[in-house]
Amino acid sequence: MAFDFHSDKEKYFRIQRENSKTSIIPFVKDIVPLNANTRVLEIGCAEAGVLKPFLESGATCVGVELHKERLEWARKFLEDYLKAGKVSFIAKDIYDIDIAKDIGKKFDLVILKDVIEHIHDQGKFIARLGDFLNPDGKVFFGFPPWHMPFGGHQQICKSILSKMPYLHLLPSGLYRAALKAFGEPQQRIADLLEIKETGISTARFEKLLSKHNFTIAKRQFYLISPIYTYKFGMKPVKQLPVLSDLPFARDFVTTAAYYLAGKKS
């Protein structure tokens, strides 16, 4: 099923705001204090719904987004904070950002919500994140593990395939053939195959964190993702501890993984 709220920018903004308020902020605030002295950066901020509750907490925020049209919506939705100088936006690739020139100061918290699973060369990307952090700064990662039922984002399909769990785990040739046979347009097929290339498991993610000198301060796996409250009316359910400690098996039944990580001192 393709979700209508992705095309309804105001509704999508509200969903991201509420999910941030009820699940992301409670996850980070016991480790990263949120007040007028806190600086927050979101990479891949889209319309900046995730940032709204951080602004409400008093933090100063910066949103980075490659798609300029999405930042136009962000500026509209956060107009009052923009005028007050509490939020700013940058339309650049993070590798092209000069921190001293473009931003000025580093951050106490960097947010990546549903971003890491779309990135090529995730190790290089994770290493770059350290450049944006204050000495005690943390990075929040929230993403669907690759092996979860809809880890391939096949819910964006217009055909019955949108309701087919684990379809994305087919070999690439068979996956492409199935998408084509059910009439999915070529661009959507290309997008889904790209996600197949970049999708990440929790085990590989944790190895990349360790390789690039990050330590995990906190993590939480969800059997039912917090965002499903707004998509399907389902209450979040945390993953059973016995499954959370099984690196391969847990991903098949984990619809969201939350991590808070910082650089090793």
Structure description:
The chain has 265 residues and is of the alpha/beta class. The chain folds into two domains: 208 residues, Vaccinia Virus protein VP39 (Rossmann fold, 3-Layer(aba) Sandwich), CATH 3.40.50; 44 residues, no CATH class. It has eleven helices and eight strands. An eight-stranded mixed beta sheet has the order 3-2-1-4-5-8-6-7, sandwiched between helices. Helix 2 links the parallel strand 1 and strand 2. The N and C termini lie far apart (45 Å).
Features:
265 residues; alpha/beta; Rossmann fold; eight-stranded mixed sheet; 8 strands; 20% strand
In the CATH hierarchy, the architecture of the largest domain is 3-Layer(aba) Sandwich
Number of domains: 2
Strand content: 15-25%
Q: N- to C-terminal separation?
A: 45 Å
Give helix % range: 25-40%
Instruction: Note the main sheet.
Output: 8 strands, mixed
Strand order of the largest sheet: 3-2-1-4-5-8-6-7
List the uncertain runs. 1-5
Provide the succession of SSEs.
HEHEHHEHEHEHHHEHEHE
Determine the number of helices (DSSP H or I, runs of at least 4 residues).
Answer: 11
CATH fold category name of the largest domain: Rossmann fold
Structural class: alpha/beta
Strand runs, count: 8
Supply the CATH superfamily name of the largest domain: Vaccinia Virus protein VP39
* Top CATH class of the largest domain: Alpha Beta
Shape: globular
Cα radius of gyration in angstroms: 18 Å
The averaged pLDDT comes out at 95
